[in-house]
Amino acid sequence: MSKAEILVSGATGRTGGVAIDTLLKMDKRVRAYVRKDGEEAASLRKKGVEIAIGDFTDIDAIHAAMQGVRSAYFLHPISPGIVQASAFFAQAAKEAGVATIVNMSQISARRNSKSNAARDHWVSERVFDWSGVPTTHLRPTFFADWLVYPHFAKEIWANKRIEFPFGKGRHAPISTDDQGRVIAHILNAPEGHGGKIYPLHGPREMDHYEIAAAMSDVLGAKISYSPLSIEEFRQRMEQTYKFNPFLVQHLCEVAQDYQNGVFAGTNDVVEKVTGEPPLSIPDFVARNRTAFV
Fold first, then answer.
1. How many CA atoms lie within 13 A of 253 on its CB side?
2. With the C-alpha atoms ordered 242, 244, 247, 251, is the resulting torsion angle positive or negative?
3. Residue 47 falls within a domain, yes or no?
4. Domain count, the chain
5. What is this structure's pTM?
6. Rounded to an integer, what distance in angstroms lies between the CA atom of residue 274 and that of residue 94?
7. Residue 160 lies inside a defined structural domain of this protein
8. From the centroid of its chain, how far is CA 78?
9. What is the CATH number of the domain that holds 38?
10. Is 158 part of any domain?
11. Which domain, by its residues, includes 80?
């Protein structure tokens, strides 16, 4: 491994994949850190991406993947283990002389969060800060992509109804495409971003009644919003979606955060970092129409 200058973990996921595509358009040499050498890794190779195999429990594999790169993206799934993974990633980066890290956190990350995952994200941020490797923490609000996740999109279209436990709360949905572009631009030109915490928002704060109306206009079918209680949503996640207990606990607690305004707000970070404004909900739904019809 001698050519790549940027390392991207989560390379087969949404934000990492967009970051890689954006970096390749910039003619940057990219290395992807993936858990196994399968079809997705082969697809990345065809694009000209180097592949490093390993996971976040193997500091030696992370260290090997870091060799020769100047910036790295850290993305951990919503699952236990992020604090140790962050320590391994930060230490490996420090040993390898990596100049900057972009860390995917979440807007609900805080010391007193009742979500185990959100609290762990906050500790993860502090681990990167302690390491001394300049790190940019990204804290996105709820993704616009919630609307097109397979579990949810099928139900929304079949029932012509959004059923989430968000009450009358508001947020400015942000797409993973926009997050990926932010990640790529900071990895490529990190000057001035180290040590910063960036909340990431879409262009317009909306409640889910407004989101449903926007979807109706784009899809040409009446979509309504029918709020669930958090307990109703918990039962659906456990019984219908079969989500694991760690994820269920997180989503229930951040649903309450959402109702309390933690996910609200908007800003111009996406446009300032990338030079382009983020996608609106109508544009996002139009771009992802095939998820519904």
1. 18
2. positive
3. yes
4. 1
5. 0.97
6. 27
7. no
8. 10
9. 3.40.50.720
10. no
11. 6-142+175-201+263-276
The radius of gyration computed from the CA coordinates of the chain, to the nearest angstrom, equals 19
Structure tokens given for 280: 């609106």
Q: Can you read off the two tokens belonging to residue 242? A: 């079969």
Q: Are the C-beta atoms of residues 156 and 212 closer than 8 Å to each other? A: no
What residue has token string 């807007």? 107
What are the φ and ψ backbone dihedral angles of 21, each rounded to 5 degrees? -60, -40
State how far the Cα of 210 lies from the Cα of 207, in Å rounded to an integer. 5
CB 24 within 8 A of CB 30: yes
Helices (H), the chain: 14-25, 39-46, 59-66, 82-96, 116-131, 150-159, 176-188, 208-219, 230-239, 245-259, 269-274, 281-287
Burial label, 21 (beta-carbon count in 10 A; 0-12, 13-18, 19+) = middle
Q: Is residue 130 part of a domain?
A: yes
Per-residue pLDDT of the chain (293 residues; tens, 9 = 90+): 458 999 999 999 999 999 999 999 999 999 999 999 999 999 999 999 999 999 999 999 999 999 999 999 999 999 999 999 999 999 999 999 999 999 999 999 999 999 999 999 999 999 999 999 999 999 999 999 999 998 899 999 999 999 999 999 999 999 999 999 999 999 999 999 999 999 999 999 999 999 999 999 999 999 999 999 999 999 999 999 999 999 999 999 999 999 999 999 999 999 999 999 999 999 999 999 999 87
The Cα–Cα gap between 72 and 135 comes to 10
Q: Tell me the backbone φ, ψ of residue 53, rounded to 5 degrees.
A: -105, 135
